[in-house]
Amino acid sequence: MAGTDGSETATQAMRQAVDLARAVGAEMELVSAYEPVPAQRLRDERREAPEDLQWAISPREDVDATLEAAASLARDAGVNARTYPRQGDPADAILDVAEEREADLIVVGNKGMTGAKRFLLGSVPNKISHHAPCSVLIIRTT
Question: In the 3-class helix/strand/coil scheme, how is the chain assigned residue by residue?
């Protein structure tokens, strides 16, 4: 299983995770976390959007697109992938899905992007490595 936030560095880690899954004939669980969006902001965005697109504006629209891009990367390499959008902390989301799906390996990058702010995700792989129910592969992307 792999976590992604859609950033360039997370995509680098995802490519390596896909290559590994393909090499060993594994399936992938793809996880991405999102923060709750205030209801007023959602209402404002829906009001401003064209009528035929208003249904798509949701708290997790960005994470759905991120996961679809990652799943497409896996499918293009011949790897079956399932997606798991989760609200909340990225490390907790990855750990929860790893436990639920009884993952054999978690793959994460060491740096990424959340929302509009770029920052080091050292705390995410660190938290995962200390609490994971399985082995963890941290891809150096910087």
Answer: CEECCCCHHHHHHHHHHHHHHHHHCCCEEEEEEECCCCHHHHHHHHHHCCHHHHHHCCCCHHHHHHHHHHHHHHHHCCCCEEEEEEECCHHHHHHHHHHHHCCCEEEEECEEEECCEEEECCHHHHHHHHHCCCEEEEECCC
Nearest to 66 by CA among 45, 95, 93, 104: 93
pTM: 0.77
Q: Is residue 5 a contact partner of residue 125, using CB atoms and an 8 Å limit?
A: no
User: Can you tell me the distance from the alpha carbon of 40 to that of 48, in angstroms, rounded to the nearest whole number?
Assistant: 12
Kindly list the distances between the CA atom of residue 109 and the CA atoms of 37, 53, 59, 106, in Å, as whole numbers in the listed order: 25, 33, 24, 10
Nearest to 14 by CA among 102, 64, 79: 79
Model confidence pLDDT, tens digit, residues 16-45: 999 999 999 999 999 998 876 656 665 666
